[in-house]
């Protein structure tokens, strides 16, 4: 398993449906080593902190293995690292294997998986295709967010070590399916809520589901 690229970007104004919006989704790969801090990478910022960033979503990882699928599906060949707004382009970490709560060692940092990604309209803006977010969601190729347990420098080419893999926690793919396609599954929601590493935002959604 390996970190193929570290990608960062600053928020900028772009036009979307005759409106101006701020977004930090335009990430570019950087050379050398980058300091990963509690809420983001040096040189990286999120535009809308209501839905992006924070301790539970300090960085976003996306498997490079999915690039070929999207290139074929969309008929494109112009992809580069950071194409899906990810901070970390990874190799060897797939959603059906990675578990919520999994702790990864990369360079000098320790990170913990917290939730899959749910795409918003800004991913469509990044891809130049308004219809892309639902395609992305339905594919299950979500990637995943991580919190930082230990700050440290990371860089492209770093090996990725599984420091801890909780066997009693759902995989990223299982949690994605539960959230989006099993909305009446209260028992499944209870299982997810028992995972200590689950992000607060998804925890609140699932708690509401159980209450209903």
UniProtKB/TrEMBL annotation:
Protein name: Molybdenum cofactor biosysynthesis protein
Superkingdom of the organism of origin: Bacteria
Coiled-coil portions: none
SUPFAM superfamilies: PK beta-barrel domain-like
UniProt xrefs under InterPro entries: Benzoxazolinone_Detox_Enz, MoCF_Sase_C, Pyrv_Knase-like_insert_dom_sf, Tri_helical_YiiM-like
Gene3D superfamilies reported in the protein's UniProt record: PK beta-barrel domain-like
GO MF annotations in UniProt: catalytic activity; molybdenum ion binding; pyridoxal phosphate binding
Domain MOSC: 28-163
Short name of one Pfam family: MOSC
């Amino acid at each position: 398993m390996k970190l193929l690229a570290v990608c960062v970007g600053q928020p900028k104004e772009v036009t979307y449906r005759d409106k101006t919006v701020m977004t930090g989704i335009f990430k570019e790969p950087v050379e050398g080593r980058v300091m990963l801090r509690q809420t983001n990478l040096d040189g990286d910022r999120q535009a809308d902190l209501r839905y992006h960033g924070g301790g539970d979503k300090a960085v976003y990882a996306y498997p490079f293995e999915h690039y070929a699928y999207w290139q074929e599906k969309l008929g494109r060949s112009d992809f580069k690292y950071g194409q899906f707004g990810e901070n970390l382009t990874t190799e060897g970490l797939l959603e059906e294997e990675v578990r919520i709560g999994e702790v990864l060692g990369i360079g000098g940092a320790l990170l913990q998986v917290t939730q899959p990604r749910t795409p918003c309209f800004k991913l469509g803006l990044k891809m130049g295709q308004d219809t892309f977010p639902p395609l992305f969601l339905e594919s299950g190729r979500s990637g995943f967010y991580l919190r930082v347990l230990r700050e440290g420098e990371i860089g492209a080419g770093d090996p990725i070590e599984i420091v801890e893999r909780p066997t009693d926690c759902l995989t990223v793919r299982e949690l994605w399916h539960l959230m989006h396609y099993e909305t009446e599954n209260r028992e499944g929601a209870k299982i997810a809520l028992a995972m200590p590493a689950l992000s607060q935002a998804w925890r609140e959604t699932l708690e509401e589901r159980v209450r209903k």
